[in-house]
Amino acid sequence: MPETCVCGTVILTINFFLEHGRTFYFKINSVPIYMKGSNIIPVSILPELGQNKTHVQFLLKSAKDANMNMLRVWGGGVYESDVFYKAADELGLLIWQDFMFACSMYPVDQDFLKNVADEVNHQVRRLQHHPSVVVWAASNENEAALRQNWYGTKSNFSLYKSDFKKLYVDTIKNMVLSVDRTRPFLTSSPTNGVDSEREGYIAEDPQSHFYGDVHFYNYLTNGLSQPLYPISRFVSEYGYQSLPSVQTLLTATNDSNHLGILDNFLRHRQHHAYGYVEMDLQIGYQFKLPDYESPNFNQAYTFYSQIVQAMSVKTSTEKFRRWRGNVNDIGEGLTMGALYWQLNDVWVAPSWSSIDFKQNWKMLHYFAKRFFAPVIISNELSVTDNLHSYVVSDLMKPIQNVTLTLTVYGWNSTTSIYSETVKATILPGSSRKIGSIDLKSFLTEKWCGVDPFCNCFVYYTLTDRENNPLAPDNFFFPTAIKNANLIAPKLKTSVRQIDRIGKEFEILIETDVIALFVWLETTNVQGRFSDNGFLQVTTKRTVTFFPLRTVLIGDLENALVVTNLLDSKFL
Fold first, then answer.
1. Domain residue extents for the chain
2. Which residues of 523-533 are buried (b: 16+ CB within 10 A; e: fewer)?
3. Strand order, beta sheet including 235-238
């Protein structure tokens, strides 16, 4: 049995009364666990291919490798195969299992309810022996849809509320509890949980920050604006769209002229209303795109879309993690879960995924590996431009004598302008503020010139008493990248084979100045990197490449492409 298997654990959902609201979290073997992960849509749009063991293992192992501990099987998809749940058991991934009812009002005639009861009975009996399954949820967004009148049901609210209870309470909940009383049950997601039950299963505000879980999407406001994101108990959906890489797009068409967002090819594949308009907005907040007629526009748009997706989900997730164990004056906080939308794709298209249809990690997935790490550095900028630094730990033991190092860099050099340290002890399962600076005054004093927000940025590291890293490095940009006084770096790479069989390689990246969003790709050689999409502040940095299949070093060298934000092909 793998050491990470959750077999035999006791799983409880705990709800305590507070002055304002209740808590919502999972407790495993008496330990509160912060849930970090994603929502998974069908492994394949063709159910028979959803049982492909290699593909299932790749997706779930990718989630595990990105420090996730939970996946939500979304109610708008399918019940996954036995292969899926067995793999989750073995990898120690926890599964939030929706029943397949989503974003709709359903009939409640006796034949339909009998069919539902049979379906639920079958699925619960099939899945209940999997220790990975930790919660049942009857529907996706249907409580919110009814209360907020998504489908014009307001005029017959009492009827639809009665139907809701017949389907999700009298039928699904009763059937689940008749078969399995070992797991908690939710009638919907988002929901206020036991408080929704108290209100007759349709809460006045199913998206309340004080109860249960929430889903959050806002594509119009700057995704890097920290105040945008809710301070909630548990955030089970949130995210942004991006395009898959040009390399992936060209597996669906052999005509590069199809890669423009106004071309019918990509317009047809955008199934989210106003999707490109919203991507345009998010990109525009951070970057200056080339003219649409420029030969560089398509590549720049694709690359920038992945950056803003990754940075926006990073910003939101770090905020959600920062509120672990903390509560504000009105009772918001105590956040204990962040599951972004979404893990995977069912075809080559723009979507919210962090892994594209061709099994390539997007920039978001590499970012997730960092922002879901057991220990992270997280920053909060106040309305008065005070930059607060937090250390968040999911570890079950304290960390003594840690050193947070704050370094100021100018964009034109890998030599730092200023550095200072703070010593601290980090408690188990905590989020602690350990430093604050008046950002503008601080940067002005550190020789960042008359326009310090455009000339400098802040970089953080966290180390133990032996100077070993405890968390991924982090950074804070005082202004939008389009306003910063950047200099294009000159990047060089070299490759060294580590093992004897061609399954592990070290790649050395060298730069002369700060390099933003350094991105490595391998044309026609599948695999993943130990890190990618990173900010390089040192002249030399190494990453490891793990190909899916054995490859010769010469073939890898020929396939390797390194780019960065200021690569000429994006300008």
1. 10-240+305-372, 377-483, 491-563
2. eebebbbebbb
3. 185-186, 133-137, 94-98, 70-73, 35-40, 337-341, 235-238, 214-216
Residue 20: the pLDDT is 63
Q: Is 141 a catalytic residue?
A: yes
CATH level 3 topology of 377-483 = Immunoglobulin-like (2.60.40)
Distance of CA 497 to the CA centre of its chain: 32
Structure tokens at 120: 């639920």
CATH T-level topology, domain 10-240+305-372? TIM Barrel (3.20.20)
Cα distance between residue 325 and residue 336, in whole Å = 8
Tell me the C-alpha distance between 145 and 190, whole Å: 10
The alpha carbon of 150 is separated from its chain's Cα centroid by a whole number of angstroms, namely 26
Q: What are the φ and ψ backbone dihedral angles of 453, each rounded to 5 degrees? A: -65, -25
Total number of residues shown for the chain: 571
Fold matches, 377-483 and 491-563: yes
Distances (CA, A) of 385 to 315, 434, 441, 484: 17, 17, 9, 17
3-state secondary structure of 492: strand
CA 202 from centroid of its chain's CA atoms? 29
Sign of CA dihedral 358, 546, 86, 175: negative
Instruction: Give residue-wise pLDDT tens across range 236-280.
Output: 999 999 999 999 999 999 999 999 999 999 999 999 999 999 999
Low-confidence ranges of the chain (pLDDT < 70): 1-20
Q: What was the pLDDT predicted at 17?
A: 41
237 is known as an active-site residue = yes
**pLDDT score of 4:** 40
Sequence-distant (≥ 6) Cβ neighbours of residue 340 within 8 angstroms:
37, 38, 39, 237, 238, 239, 313, 316, 317, 352, 354, 368
Q: Is the peptide bond before 227 cis (omega within 30 degrees of 0)?
A: no
173 contacts 121 by C-beta, under 8 angstroms: no
Instruction: Return the sign of the alpha-carbon dihedral for residues 120, 126, 130, 132.
Output: negative
DSSP-derived secondary structure letter, 138: S
Q: Which of 80, 141, 143, 318 is catalytic?
A: 141
Element of type H or E holding 558? helix 553-559
Q: What is the mean pLDDT of the chain?
A: 95
Give bridge partners of residue 462 from the DSSP assignment. Answer: 404
Q: Domain 491-563 is in which class?
A: mainly beta
Q: Which residue in the list 80, 143, 237, 318 is annotated as catalytic?
A: 237
Distance between CA atoms of 237 and 417, rounded to whole angstroms? 40
